Amino acid sequence: MAEIQFSRGIKEEVVPDVRITRSKTGQTGTATFYFQKPQAIDKDFKEDITGMYMVDEEGEISTSNVNGKFVNGEPMGIEATYVIKSPEQWDRFIRFMERYSEENDLGLTKSKQD
């Protein structure tokens, strides 16, 4: 089990586009998640967005860096950023993403280095 939640206990069904960067030293990194029209911004969704929670059998990883994206005043998406501050956090995040990717049929595309 690996899922993302915006309100604890409520699984977000929309699978995000995820972009991950890592510092040259491998010590830090950033993961940016973009959810297009997630259920968490649906007008019928009654819960407050309290953060983004990545939950799996190891526990929970969370970030409060969550922002709504709007077009002409209408909610269109959510962007969340998780800042990775140590090699241990990096390893834990990658384990979560491997589980989440497997459950949601996500693939990995590496960027080209110039």
Automatic annotation (TrEMBL):
Family matches, as InterPro entries: Psb28_c1_sf, PSII_Psb28_class-1
Key words, A-Z: Membrane, Photosynthesis, Photosystem II, Thylakoid
NCBIfam families for this protein: PS_II_psb28
Signal peptide residues on this chain, from the entry's feature table: none
Name of the gene this protein is made from: psb28
GO biological process: photosynthesis
HAMAP family: PSII_Psb28 (MF_01370)
Name of this chain's protein: Photosystem II reaction center Psb28 protein
Its membrane topology: Peripheral membrane protein
Main location: membrane
Membrane is among the record's keywords: yes
UniProt-listed Pfam families: Psb28 (PF03912)
Classification lineage: Bacteria, Bacillati, Cyanobacteriota, Cyanophyceae, Coleofasciculales
